[in-house]
Structure formats: C-alpha cells, structure tokens
Amino acid sequence: MRASSLYAPTLRNTPAEAEIVSHQLMYRAGLIRKVAGGMYTFLPLGWRVIRKIEQIIREEMDAAGGQEVMMPILQPAELWEESGRWAAYGDEMMRMKDRHGRNFCLGPTHEEMITDLVRDEVRSYKQLPLLLYQIQDKFRDERRPRFGLMRSREFIMKDLYSFDKDVEGMNASYQKMYDAYTRIYNRMGLAFRPVEADNGAIGGGHSHEFTVLADAGESNIAYCPHCDYAASDEKAELAPISAPAEDALPLEKVATPGTNTIESLCDFLKIPAEKTIKAVAYQTDADELVLVFLLGDHEVNEVKVINQIAGALELRMADEAAIRAAGGCPGFMGPIGIKNGTRILVDASVMELHNAVTGANEQDVHYKNVNPARDFDAAAITVTDLRMVREGDPCPHCGTPLKMTRGIEAGQVFTLGTKYSAAIGATFLDEQGKEQPLYMGCYGIGVGRTMAAAIEQNNDAQGIVWPRAIAPYEVVVVAVNAKKDDQLAYAEAIYEECQAAHIDTLLDDRKERAGVKFKDCDLIGYPVRITIGPKAVEAGDIEVKVRKTGEVYHFTREDYLAKVRELLEKL
Fold this sequence. Notes:
globular; 29% strand; BirA Bifunctional Protein, domain 2; catalytic activity, acting on a protein; five-stranded mixed sheet; YbaK protein; alpha+beta; nine-stranded mixed sheet; 26% helix; Rossmann fold; single chain
C-alpha cells in the first residue's frame, strides 16, 4: 500500500470529547471516526489492526478445537423468554418489533441462540465436547458510552461456547480456553494478568478476566506478590479482620448530636474508625430494602451484596421512607432494633469487634460497647464477606499483603453449568441412554477493546507504539523527498523487496515535508521505519529506526533486509 492512496486522515489536535489516551490517539492517528455516541467507523488503518487481532484469535480458537459459525445479530424474544432473561436483562438490551409486532433484540450476547442451535442437533455424548465460536458485532445500550472503544454501544466480540457431558468435561474445556487466551495475549505482545472475576449477569460458576495492565484501566486488581493469586476488586475474597480481645462492657446508648457521618462520630467520641460500624442502605430493582453493615473504615462491595440477593440485578441508594418503615434512622442506623423481616447483611469483620459503636436508630443517638456476637440477633442477619479489597489486605491463599494495580478487561472466561441448557431444554443421551442437560461454558474477547487496551499500554508523547503482531503495518518506508525521482525510485525498490520478503510494509510516497511524514509515522506507531534520503541514493546508507526504543541504525543495501528481519523478531 502507498500512503498517497491510503485513507488515513491524521489530526494534530485532540478532539475535546476524547478523554483517555487510546481514544485520543485512535482519532489523531486516523484509526476511527465517531458516528454517534458509542458508535464508530473503523478507517483502513484501524480495520487492519482489528483484522490482525481477529486472525490471532481465530488461529488459537481453531488450534484449541473451536469451530467458527456465524449467528444472526437479530434475536427473537422467545429464546430470551425461555431462559428468563428477556425481562431480567435490563435497559442495556436494544429491543424492537418487526412489522408483525413480534419482539426482537439486537444481540448483546448469544448464550440463548447458541443453546437453541445445538439442542436439536446434539443428541449423544459421542458428539461431545463441542466448541463453537463466532466473531461479530454485539449491541448494548450503555447508559453512558465513553472512552471510545472501551465502552461503546456497538462492539466486536469473539464469543465461544463449549458443550460437555459433565462438570469434568466443562472444566477441561474451561482450562483449554484459559490456556488459549494466555497464548492470544502473549502473541499480541501485551502485558496482562488473568484475575478471578464475578460472573455478573451471565451467571454460572467460576470466571477469570484477562486484564491488560494499564493505568487508565477501569478494573482494580488485587494481586499477591508471593503466590499466583489475583482477582478483580469485585471478586477478591477477604478473610475477617480480627480485632484485639477486650472484656465485653455493658451495651449503652449515648447522645451523639450531629454525628451522622463516621468522620464526625469518630471526632466526637475520640475513637478510631475501625471501632465503628457503618450502615449503607440499598433498595433492589424489586424495591426490597437491604441494610449492609461493615467497619467504619471499609467500603462496601456492591457486587458481593447483589450476589447475596437472588434475582437482584441492580442496587440503588434507599430512600428515607423505606429506611424509616423498617425502623431505621438515616445517619444513625444500626442492626439493633430493625424490624423483623428486613434483609440485614453484616460483613464478617464486624462480628470480630469488641465494644464498638453503631447507630441506635434514633436521631443523634448511638450505641456504644457493642459486641456483635452478643448483641446482634443471629437469626435476623446474614454474615458474609461484603467489603471491598484494599492494598495490604492479606492474600486469602498465603497471607502475604496484597498489592493493587489497574487494568482493562479485554477478555473473560466463564463456566455456565446447566443454567441455559436446562432452561432451554438442550439435552443429550449419556452412555446409559439417559437424558442429561449439556454442561456449558462461554468465552469472550472484546476485539475493539483489546485494540484500545493495547494503545493504553503502548504509547508515548509522540503517539502509538504498536506491538509488531497487531500493528497496521510492520514497516513503513519513507521517501524523504518524494518529489525527487531518484529517492522515490529507491524507496519503491526497498518497498518491493520488503513485500517480497513477506514483511507487511507501507510506502510513504506522499509529496509532503519529511517532518510531516516522520510525525505521522510516530503518531500511527509503525514498529520499524526505513528512511530513504540522499545518503541512501548516493552511498547505499539506509537508515532504520525502531519506534519502541527510538534506536537508529544504518545498514547497507546488501544487509538491511536481514537486519530489519532481526529487529522485527525482537519486537
């Protein structure tokens, strides 16, 4: 490809709406253009990156035994009604009616459709295991599309679904995909970490997110520097924190005027936050009141809360009327005295406290000398892990203090068990001729999100620094002055030689100033730049620059091609 014919409109200024580096650089480097909120057109350079990512994914899915299919984006409501998700999925689902009034959606995911595909075809255990995948667009009506390809309404996803005869087979398929994902991200040249994750609306059993490490990532990751434990902050398992032993003092009420925050309470009573019990009140999407209690210096993990409530999809802060109806008092809430039947969740660390302070459910009044094991009604509360992980918490596997980092979720693997097969009726006959539900797993990679994550991890002040495997072109040959026939002819010859050597090469033959071309090369991020100027024409001195390191080499015409290959092999 010649740059003079390439549609790659680069920008010197950053669009105001682009908040993070990947969004800014994809705009400036001419990779994408916005159509509407959360919807983008891929320009030629951006689409080349997408296709290279897809090719790596295809090769690894095929090598792992996957077979590629293509299912419709438009899905009938009947399938989602069978699984129970048509009403439950929420506002992210883009719904519509056809001319006959039948309900459809634009697929946000394809568990229902793939299960429907196999339920009439897979009848025997001899047909298992089966791994089917596709790479296509998905649609989710994000409340607030942002950050370019990180959170968009239309996005490209690879989704593979595994079907097995039992839990052992399902877990084997899961491990096969886990290993394939590891190879995929290694081949792309990305620094990543698989972390234990919550299954969310997909449901099922255990899950790992494949997280590309980057400061701009939305995911907080807790990891152990000693063992291999890593988990998203939503999933991280936390053991109760033990408090120093004390003799239990009598429970009593104390006036605490104006102390409706933990900070003001601690100032008033001259106590540390870890001696207080904080209350957070929620209502579910079914309007059930949920009261959560944890240490005053801890933060509540809403995902863990949702996982304690069957059927709950979302939480919102509870309104005052609901709190008072349950016997609570906003700003002064505690578990003691709440009406029976109210859902009360207590973090396990709270139960370790001695002589602590919590709200008395009266205005400007708290209880002190609270000993939860003594004073809380055990039959009225659920004790579990409800807090958010923080740096320094002990690793649940080895006890070493955890570290925190940030990352971008680019892929996720799930076990589903029989959640969808049982609901939709996808069964097979086992070795004894008995009908059994299929055991399933699902495995997704956000293709565009991976592209954005790669940029977030690989950039500098000049622009993108692509890993070789997913760069739009591996090498760019720049004719310093394309108006001079001898330089252009020499550059064309080098370009042809690189092409013949199966090096993915672009020729920048534009009649622009050299500085403009060099800036574009750095902005777009081609891994290797070959510069053809007067020295090359006159003395065979070919300049080669490595984008990642900035190192500049000078090679002869006879050895430059072998040297370029060597440099590429190191990238």
